[in-house]
Amino acid sequence: MSFSGLITAFGLGAVYFIAAIPAGAAAGAPAWLAGLAAWAGYVVGGSVVLVAGAPLREWLVRKLRIPVERDPSKLVWRMWERGGLWGLCFIAPVTIGPQATAVIALAVGERAPRIALAIALGVAPWCLLFAVLTAFGFKLVD
User: Fold this and answer.
1) What pLDDT score was predicted for residue 132?
2) Helix axes of 31-52 and 112-135: crossing angle, nearest 10 degrees
3) How many CB atoms within 10 Å of residue 44?
4) What is the mean pLDDT of the chain?
5) Under a CB-based contact definition with an 8 Å cutoff, are residues 92 and 98 in contact?
6) In 10 A of CB 1, how many CB atoms?
7) Cα separations (Å) of 55 from 65, 105, 128?
8) Closest by Cα among 71, 72, 62, 140 to 100
């Protein structure tokens, strides 16, 4: 087991989830442990926005150009209309990431504990899928 692989998976899990598990495994961590570290990083990445407060949320909205106004032409808002918080948190790991998910959910009035739970549960199936694919040698990222 490689500590650097776990740190890699954790760090990338917070900012670029799709590459987190393959990179952690490439750095020497077992795929299942890289998946667990990426899950933890993803949850921490979203929780930072929930805990940090309004200044960080406003900065992220400006920096990442997060569409907090409802726009039915955007995938994120179509997902929100169809699936609500749970649908958004399920699609977020492969689209907008945990920070933007937290900002959007807060913008529509969801409570922070509910958002944190949805973020943690929404990324779990992706962690399992990517860990299995990585363990079997599939290439997820170029």
Assistant:
1) 95
2) 160
3) 16
4) 88
5) yes
6) 8
7) 15, 16, 34
8) 62
Q: Higher model confidence: residue 66 or residue 4? A: 4
Residue 142 has pLDDT above 70, yes or no: no
* pLDDT tens digits for range 76-131: 677 778 888 999 899 999 988 999 899 888 877 789 999 999 999 999 999 999 99
Q: Yes or no: say if 119 and 98 are a contact pair by the CB < 8 Å rule.
A: yes
Alpha carbon distance 126, 142 (integer Å):
18
Q: Domain ranges for the chain, please list them.
A: 3-135
Query: What confidence score (pLDDT) does residue 85 get?
Result: 93
The enclosing H or E element of 49 equals helix 31-52
CA–CA gap between residue 1 and residue 15 (Å, rounded): 23
Give the integer Cα–Cα distance in Å for 42 and 130: 14
Beta carbons within 10 angstroms of residue 125's beta carbon? 11
Handedness of CA 3, 121, 56, 58 (dihedral sign): positive
Q: Which residue from 34, 55, 56, 36 is spatially nearest to 46, judged by alpha carbons?
A: 56
